[in-house]
Specification:
By secondary structure, the protein is mainly α. Helix content is about 75%, strand content about 5%. It has helices spanning about 15-40, 40-55, 65-125, 130-140, 145-150, 155-170, and strands at about 175-180, 180-184. The chain has a two-stranded antiparallel sheet with strand order 1-2. Helix 2 (about 40-55) packs across helix 3 and helix 3 packs across helix 6 (about 155-170). It is rod-shaped and about 105 Å long. It starts with 14 loop residues before the first helix and ends with a strand.
Length: about 180
């Protein structure tokens, strides 16, 4: 390993100059080391930047003989901490995806079951209520269009739709209807 050369200006080298020289010497090696651990150049640069920032805070306490060991150990530990953090984030994302997938599947199944139940109830409606419901809700015709097609008044269409929706609502909620009166 190369020794750090410190240039003296007028007999004194500033703390900043010593750190700058150390930075220039060790930064590229630490980035290569972090890339090996992380597999990502930008992530490695960020990590080494953090290590150098922390080193600056305690630079006066670092002994020249152990500086390289300090930097490599700090880089390794920061990489390991980042990898642990990334793994935890990935586990949270995986759990969120699983919960979302289950919610979507459950919601879809419930929705499909409700649609089948509504269709079954609708098919059990008496005529002309069943036909009027089909024309309004499945074929998307207006009350006026249904009235013209069946040659009845729009008010009669409205009355049959109200009846159909009441039966659907009551039966979907577990209530039965007999001749306009509810049983619960």
């Amino acid at each position: 390993m190369a020794k750090l050369t410190i240039f003296r200006f007028r007999g004194h080298v500033s703390r900043e100059e010593r750190f700058r020289q150390l930075f220039v010497e060790i930064y590229p090696r630490l980035v290569r080391y972090a890339i090996q651990l992380m597999g990502d150049r930008e992530e490695a640069k960020d990590i080494v930047g953090e290590v150098m920032e922390e080193a600056w805070k305690c630079f006066d306490r670092l002994e020249a003989e152990t500086q390289n060991a300090y930097f490599y150990t700090a880089t390794r530990n920061t990489c390991l901490n980042r990898l642990k953090h990334l793994r935890v984030e990935q586990q949270h994302l995986d759990a969120l995806r699983e919960v979302t997938r289950m919610d979507v599947n459950t919601g879809y199944r419930q929705h499909e079951a409700q649609l089948r139940q509504a269709e079954t109830i609708a098919y059990g409606l008496p005529e002309p209520t069943r036909t009027i419901l089909r024309l309004c809700y499945w074929e998307k015709l207006t009350y006026r269009q249904v009235a013209e097609r069946l040659e009845i008044s729009p008010d009669t269409v409205k009355k049959h739709i109200s009846k159909a929706l009441r039966v659907l609502r009551n039966e979907m909620n577990g209530k039965e209807e007999t001749n306009g009166t509810e049983r619960g």
